[in-house]
Amino acid sequence: MAGRVFEVPFEPDEAWVEALAPRLSHIRALYFGLHLRPGLDARFQARRYAPERLAGLLNRLPGPRRHALLNAAFQPAGQYADKAFLGEIAQALETLRAAGALDAVVYADALLLRALGDHAPSLCQGLPAQPSVNLGLDSPAKVRAHLDFLATTPFAPPRSLIADRGLNRRPQALAELRAWLLTALPGAELGLLANEGCLRHCPFKPAHDAVTAAAGHFGGAEACWPALREQGCLRLLAAEPWKALASPFIRPEDAGAALARADFLKLCGRGRPPDFTARVLDAYAAGDGGDDLFALMDTLAELAVLWRLESARLPAGFAATFAACPLDCSACGRCRGLFGAAAARAPRSGLPV
User: Fold this and answer.
1) Most CB atoms within 10 A, among 71, 114, 173, 258?
2) Residue 43 DSSP class
3) Cβ-based neighbours of 331, under 8 Å, separated by 6 or more
4) Model confidence over 2-29: pLDDT tens digits?
């Protein structure tokens, strides 16, 4: 549908260019890792690519903004003073910026951003820095803290912000944040994370981010996933899949209503194949979740191995219903009932793509 715009992931591969090029009218921004070394962003990156290749592929998708991710939860302490490490990042960003393929950086680690600004102030001067959604920006006070921090660095304030996931189902708090941004950060746009599917107020989130960052430095992806699957949220969701409905995702059918409260939606799924992102983008642009909603979710795609959730069988007032949810699952059977009406066992096996 015309007028719907999204941020989508990008990987430095020809297949991604081919998948996204026909869909540029719906893409406001591309976000991507630098692929310099594992541990720089919040998804494990096993392969390395020269920044020149990354810039060249990005420039074959003209129009969208380009956001480089430095959103790992932390770096080993010695890295913040490692001139070679900081210089490698600065050189990659300089290559992208000189090629016209960089509009902002996204950070989750203020120590790294501070160190980079100190190391390469001329590069960072005026470059917008956007706080990661993983920093949980759910109030004017939290956003103000980051704006005050950024004012002490060479970086420019962000041109866009992604609100904390929880605000997807807290419309009053979202409205207050958006109204405040209009005066505190004129011209900045507010986005919502649409299809992640993590648990609302997930108790595993801090550990998840830390384990992922540590795996990038010390063990690789194979050291990360067993803990998340066997001890984390995926174990809980496999046992009680109906709790997935309490996740603050936005259905494609509710995208229009969400965009009445925000400026754009962010679609996630980095690390999955480009056809996954193309399928998700098409679904949200059309406002149709089809008969396999879990297969459009990032985290919840894990449940697509076990369950097929038919989006249209969820009630029309689904989003409004959950805006008033007290999250007292022990005293409420709403999710269990809705799941029973809309879900069926998946006729397939194996990991989702």
Assistant:
1) 71
2) S
3) none
4) 467 999 999 999 999 999 999 999 999 9
Per-residue pLDDT tens digits for 53-90: 999 999 999 999 999 999 999 999 999 999 999 999 99
Rounded CA gap, 155 and 124, in Å?
Answer: 5
From its phi and psi, is residue 187 left (phi > 0), alpha (psi between -120 and 50) or beta?
Answer: left
- Separation CA 196–CA 274 (nearest Å): 16
Q: Distance (Å, rounded) from C-alpha 106 to C-alpha 132?
A: 6
Pairing of strands 160-162, 189-193: parallel
- Answer yes or no: are the C-beta atoms of 134 and 95 closer than 8 Å: no
CB atoms within 10 A of CB 148: 9
Phi/psi for 139 (5° steps) reads -155, 155
Alpha-carbon distance of 43 to 104, in angstroms, equals: 18
At residue 320, what are phi and psi to the nearest 5 degrees? -65, -35
Token duo for residue 70: 């430095």
Task: Name all domains of the chain by residue range, CATH numbers in brackets.
Answer: 6-233+248-287 (3.20.20.70)
One DSSP character per residue, 166-212 reads: GGGG-HHHHHHHHHHHHHHSTT-EEEEE-S--PPTT-TTHHHHHHHH
99 φ, ψ to 5°? -85, 0
